[in-house]
Amino acid sequence: MKNIVPRGYMLLKDNIVRTDNLFGFPSKVKGRWAEGLNLPRKGERLFFAGCGYQFMAYAEPLLEKIKSMEDKGVNVDGALSLTMGLRKPGLNLPALLSKVLPGREDPYTTVLLDAVGILRRLEEDLAYLGEEEPCCGSPLYYLGFLEDFAGRAEEAFRRFKEARVREIIGMVPACTSSLKNLHPKFVDGYDFEVKHFVEYLDEVFDRKPVRLRLDKTVTVHDPCQIARFLEISDVLRRLLNRVKGLTVLEASTSREFTMCCGG
């Protein structure tokens, strides 16, 4: 019975519980993108960057290597077992890789830098927890590790309260949905106002009208969490329609019928 849960699932659980992120990298990697921004660690409005944007440049080479192993017929399940086994004597493969990666252009944290830059230009005060930012834990919930998820939700609640947070602006749709819809089910007294970045930005533009222009045609892809869980597809389009000269096209499958990206 002990092997009934796939090793890949167990590795994800182990990563989140041990290292506070999906990929198993050291927490100090989280804040690297924000070095020099001088964002305070405490404040009523919290910028929540999420694992995806902060770690993907490090995780991508690792995932590509796993895919290459699969293509060559290597037993990836065995490789996962080796990765977990190395942790017993204190060896953490992702931690070792984080010392030399990313050795490539990082388009992911650029999104975070742009978002912070936009909010600062709009004179919106922000706090950011850096390496203390908790993992939202949503993979634990969807894989059925509910006790572990409850523990992560409680830990996130504690860190937010210590930072005097009242409002959370999430960048990753899945993280935002977890903080908004799942955590309140597991934590008594959960009273944070949680919004996705596009939702918050749309509200700011209501308060602070800005003249925007971009002569371009774009097609909207609704992330699953944006459309089906946060249910803010209309907000996304309203934000885009604020830009003069921008032609917004709909994909053949959109809104709640959007096609999953497979990520």
Description:
α9 crosses α11. The chain is built from eleven helices and five strands; from the N terminus they run αβααααααβαβαβααβ. The model has no long low-confidence stretch (mean pLDDT 86). The strands form two sheets. A three-stranded parallel sheet has the order 1-2-3. Strands 4-5 form a two-stranded parallel sheet. With 263 residues, it is mainly alpha-helical. It folds into two domains: 7-201, no CATH class; 211-257, no CATH class. It has helices spanning 7-19, 51-71, 76-86, 93-97, 107-121, 138-142, 146-162, 173-186, 197-207, 224-229, 233-240; strands spanning 45-48, 167-170, 193-196, 213-220, 244-250.
Summarize, please:
This protein is mainly α and 263 residues long. The chain is 48% helix and 10% strand.
Low-confidence stretches: none
Mean pLDDT: 86
Order of helices and strands: HEHHHHHHEHEHEHHE
Characterize the quaternary organization of these chains. Answer: single chain
Helix and strand composition category: mainly alpha
Total helices: the number is 11
Q: What characteristics describe this protein?
A:
mainly alpha, 10% strand, 2 domains, three-stranded parallel β-sheet, 5 strands, two-stranded parallel ribbon, 263 residues
Write the layout of secondary structure elements.
Elements: H1 7-19, E1 45-48, H2 51-71, H3 76-86, H4 93-97, H5 107-121, H6 138-142, H7 146-162, E2 167-170, H8 173-186, E3 193-196, H9 197-207, E4 213-220, H10 224-229, H11 233-240, E5 244-250
Parallel strand pairs: 1-2, 2-3, 4-5
Helix pairs in contact: 1-3, 2-5, 9-11
